[in-house]
Write a structure and sequence with these properties.
Blueprint: E1 3-7, E2 13-17, E3 28-29, E4 42-47, E5 55-60, H1 68-76, E6 80-94, H2 108-113, H3 115-122, E7 127-140, E8 146-150, H4 151-154, E9 159-163, E10 169-178, E11 183-188, E12 198-199, E13 210-215, E14 223-234, E15 244-247, E16 259-262, E17 266-274, E18 282-286, H5 287-300, E19 303-304, E20 310-314, H6 317-322, E21 331-336, H7 341-344, E22 351-356, E23 359-360, H8 366-372
Length: about 375
């Protein structure tokens, strides 16, 4: 295992280092801030291209079934849950200010008496607490009652209630959470067998593939929507390990934490975010991200991650050209943390990391994700 790098400079040269880099604890990610029902056999249909020979296009047999999503919904819906929470917000607002007009309107009281008078007599008015209620979704992953959802669904909650498709309701407790990936694990105590969903492999997901979302948008229990995978590896600025699946399956407030299924009924994503001003632009956390951290959440309630001690930036084609490199790939080292593993391995500012633990680095955001997924203390 090796970490390959390229030295950048006026007379750029490339080399690989065989130095062993011990992954160390630069930061702790502590959660505070996602058998086939259908036969795998495929049919082939000829497609005539103008000015070219016939080409066979593989058509999955399941896509020919008229009620494919009907049967799929019946099979996976029982494993999806609705989540409702209560959170006490301390000092949610001054009593007097609860009666002030919207910000776009002028306050005649304030205008008449003046800002100084208002602050003198009402500036220290007592604040009061209020209860905030939220809705979300989740899915059961084992018979013990563990449920995966988004961290932002249950963060700070004083009460968590889970309702199944059978309308049975249970109180839930937080097992662990991770704000950096926005993933949380909660648990219910049920004395009967619970329906469990099957987790798939999000790395095998293809752009254009059919997907189905089930959740609790606006409190509308177990709503089913269908779409395709629009893109993979999206970085939306929500955290340091962004790697979202983009889908046009309808996702709304309340869908957060719910599953995104593939055509085989396997969970491939955790529905998490939307572009509020757009339509058909939703984002889901790849299920493989959750599969990596769930064991830690079960065991210790938080996630511990490694680090190599570097700050990186994007390697653009322009930068690559200025340094005499053929491709703008890899992660450009912007700075090295003194005393870190990278410094000990001889990595310096201006290097380009092109491979980590045997895996190629095509762009900057891939490196933090790979490092975070590496066990602490492992040599690479």
């Amino acid at each position: 295992m090796s970490l390959d790098q390229k030295r950048l400079g006026p007379n750029s040269r490339r080399y690989g280092t065989a130095s062993l880099v011990a992954v160390c604890l630069v930061g702790l990610g502590v959660g505070l801030l996602l058998a086939s029902f259908f036969p795998a056999k495929s049919l082939s249909s000829p497609v005539q291209l103008v000015g070219a020979k016939k080409t066979d296009v593989a058509v999955p047999a399941s896509s020919l079934a008229p009620n494919v999503f009907v049967e799929l919904t019946k099979r996976v819906k029982p494993g999806v849950v609705n989540i409702s929470t209560k959170k006490v917000v301390k000092g949610g607002g001054r009593v007097f200010r609860q009666f002030t007009p919207p910000s776009r309107e002028r306050d005649p009281f304030r205008d008449f008496f003046g800002e100084e008078f208002f602050n003198r007599f009402f500036g220290d008015a007592p604040q009061r607490d209020f209860v905030q209620r939220s809705l979300g979704s989740g899915f059961i992953v084992d018979r013990e009652g563990h449920i995966i959802t988004n961290n932002h669904v249950i963060e700070g909650a004083s009460e968590i209630h889970v309702r199944l498709s059978t309308e049975k309701e249970y109180e839930a407790e937080i097992v662990g959470r991770d704000s950096k990936t926005d993933i949380a694990l909660i648990k219910i105590k049920a004395w009967n067998d619970l329906p469990v969903v099957e987790l798939g492999d999000s790395d095998r997901l293809e752009i254009g593939e059919w997907v189905m979302a089930i959740g609790n948008p606006f409190g509308l229990s177990h709503t089913v929507t269908v779409g395709i995978v629009s893109a993979k590896g999206r970085v939306i600025g929500s955290g340091p390990y962004d790697d979202f699946i983009q889908t046009d399956a309808s996702i709304n407030p309340g869908n957060s934490g719910g599953p995104l299924f593939n055509i085989h009924g396997e969970v491939v994503g955790i529905n998490t975010a939307i572009v509020a001003t757009g339509q058909g632009i939703g984002f889901a956390i790849p299920i493989n991200v959750a599969k990596e951290i769930i064991p830690q959440l079960k065991k210790q309630g938080k996630v511990t991650r490694g680090g190599i001690g570097v700050y990186v930036q994007k390697m653009t084609p322009e930068l690559a050209k200025s340094f005499g490199l053929e491709k703008g790939e890899g992660a450009l080292v912007a700075d090295v943390i003194p005393g870190g593993a990278a410094e000990a391995a001889g990595i310096r500012r201006g290097d380009v990391i092109t491979r980590f633990d045997g895996k190629e680095i095509h762009e900057m955001n891939e490196l933090p994700r790979l490092v975070a997924a590496t066990a602490v203390g492992k040599e690479v």
